[in-house]
């Protein structure tokens, strides 16, 4: 359980640091900014006197894919970290590890899903 | 996942049915009015079709043309649906059926009247199945979050799917059908007839004026679209809330149903935007991939989902709150949904215009930061309100659920006192699932999860209608870990 917790908190740190780096690196980099059209309220502006009708560039699919990837990693990492934190919070409301094992046994027996004689059936538990 | 609806008795769904029929009738009456106004509009050119929706943009052909105009086949199906719906209502008036037959006839009438509008959404999705498939993962993820994030008694998955389907098929379809007509009608009154003075300068000035008029026409049509969308979302949420009235219905229920409805609409709209804006890159700087990034990734929870959630939460608040505040709450929810959507869209466009005047578009910073930020920034105040509404609703739900769970606890019953202790505490509940997975494997954890869901459904149901749910819990308990896991 400690190892799992370690992996989760490590992953959470990587996700948070990655998100921070992405948020800071891009605004700090000296780049031109504008907005490609997104929705109904946007008005296309074509300037006849300028090259490419005043359009400097496009918001490309390649760059957008990087954004999609980053958001996916941050969201999934955030959810995993939040889930891990909630499980830890649940465990902290119970007594120490031997007591937690007993609490789980008591709970499962109360549900009726396992009887006092049922052996553990999970992987690596002699199933 | 919870599937309590399978075990519940057939319910008297008369209030939901009546509201659905009323909505269908009002919708058709308003559609006929839109048709009449469109028929009576001033024509801009002598060869213009009787209905503006049949005008084909000469630049848009093939599948793109189908996206921009209402296919004639769809229009005539809508007309046939109206005729058939009217015939069904006359038949019902003459034969006066009762019981299940009456219910079937009413739902059939609603389906016949509203169903054809869904063809517009289906046309978009089936014209571009690849784009639609790309939008599935994000949409499915948000639906899963909406389902799993409710903590206590959840909206049944079938109703969540129904809300999504209503948004995707009916809200999108009605929005386009109504606003397509409105665009032509407004254009007929607002746009001047094309003339040529012979002078190039005059022609250029006239062109500038025409562009301004076109933008005004689009603004009005878009506002019209948001009003129609909000009304359609509200109708779906109200009908679904009435179907759920045997359970504890609160702000979170409406919030979730509204968000799912908005998500459905956003799904089809995303396909449309990916195709449409992606094909106009030289004008707007956007590509299909960029629209996907905005609509199905960074901004997936914004727009229709956000405002649908606010509208749904507001309607549930009105339904469950004091009767004297009902009208005020409903109006506030509508004003937020329509005003918020229109305001955010306009403000985002205005912010974009300001940045255009100083800097050029495109590039990594623009794609990943500036464009999403400008679109999402105006929605931020509404997102804060939505979060506050959700947090308050979840707290109230937690307090109600804890009381209900403890009240249901009985030795040897569906919820024992030991189980109640764990059930009433979401972190402890998740801990039991993680612990069971570790000790007995995933099938056992799934069996525990199913039992907990059934117990929470029982606790959040009307005590008088809880018999079948109680039986379901006892059946799950009797199955045990192994058989429940095997059954899964």
General description of the model:
Chain A is mostly helical and about 130 residues long. Chain A has a domain at about 10-20 and about 65-120. Helices cover about 60% and strands about 0% of the residues of chain A. Chain A has three helices and no strands. Chain A has helices at about 1-30, 60-90, 95-110. The model of chain A is unreliable at about 1-5, about 25-30 and about 125 (pLDDT under 50). Chain B folds into two domains: about 5-190 and about 210-395, no CATH class; about 410-485. Chain B has 19 helices and no strands. By secondary structure, chain B is mostly helical. The longest helix of chain B is centred in the middle third of the chain and has 44 residues, at about 200-245. Classes of the chains: A mainly alpha (about 130), B mainly alpha (about 500). Chain B: GO terms for molecular function: metallopeptidase activity.
Order of helices and strands of chain B: HHHHHHHHHHHHHHHHHHH
From the spread of the alpha carbons, the general shape of chain B counts as: globular
**Could you tell me how far the N terminus lies from the C terminus of chain B, measured between alpha carbons in angstroms?**
11 Å
Oligomer: heterodimer
The counted number of beta strands of chain A is 0
Please describe the biggest sheet of chain B, giving its number of strands, its sense, and whether it closes into a barrel: none
**Largest sheet: number of strands, sense, barrel closure of chain A:** none
Number of domains of chain B: 2
Largest interface: A-B, 66 and 86 residues
Cα gyration radius of chain B (Å): 25 Å
